[in-house]
Amino acid sequence: MQGCSNWRDAAYSWRSFIARINFAAIAGTLCTPVKTEWAMLCSHCRERYYPQIAPCIIVAIRREDSILLARHVRHRNGVHTVLAGFVEVGETLEQAVAREVMEESGIKVKNLRYVTSQPWPFPQSLMTAFMAEYDSGEIVIDPKELLEANWYRYDDLPLLPPPAPSHAV
């Protein structure tokens, strides 16, 4: 249980996990928390159950002196963000970046560079941040995901989310 950088988020994730894992999937019997690690233990077969963590990516895409920002359908308040999404089964983080960017914006990226990662408790995710450069293509948004996307100069940015007090991504 060491290495946690944000105990509030860890507590939220743990509480969500134990609320869902009261009974073992194999034996169907009661599970109890393990005291030495983030796991639940089946009282019958002793099988351990660990929280499922959903890997996801977030990427800032640069083109000369501009950055690609988008308004997402779930953010109706005018806030623009960089692109993000979940990693699919069998996919690397790099492949997830390329796929998410293409699906949401219709462009290709190059020179992908890892920046940082952080736990993200909504829903039990590990967010991995990247920087990338524009490679090719014209912006064509996925209307199920985005309301708009555009290149913005660094000296003329639209409304952005406020910085989080405890996260660096």
UniProtKB/TrEMBL annotation:
Q: What is its EC number?
A: 3.6.1.22
Q: What is this protein called?
A: NAD(+) diphosphatase
Q: Where are the transmembrane segments?
A: none
Its GO CC terms are: cytosol
Q: Which GO terms describe its biological process?
A: NAD+ catabolic process; NADP+ catabolic process
Concerning Gene3D superfamilies, the annotation shows: Nucleoside Triphosphate Pyrophosphohydrolase
Q: Name one GO molecular function term.
A: RNA NAD-cap (NMN-forming) hydrolase activity
**Keyword Transcription tagged:** no
Q: Which reaction does it catalyse?
A: a 5'-end NAD(+)-phospho-ribonucleoside in mRNA + H2O = a 5'-end phospho-adenosine-phospho-ribonucleoside in mRNA + beta-nicotinamide D-ribonucleotide + 2 H(+)
Keyword annotations: Hydrolase, Magnesium, Manganese, Metal-binding, NAD, Zinc
- Which Pfam families does the UniProt record give? NUDIX
Write down the SUPFAM superfamilies for this protein, in alphabetical order: Nudix
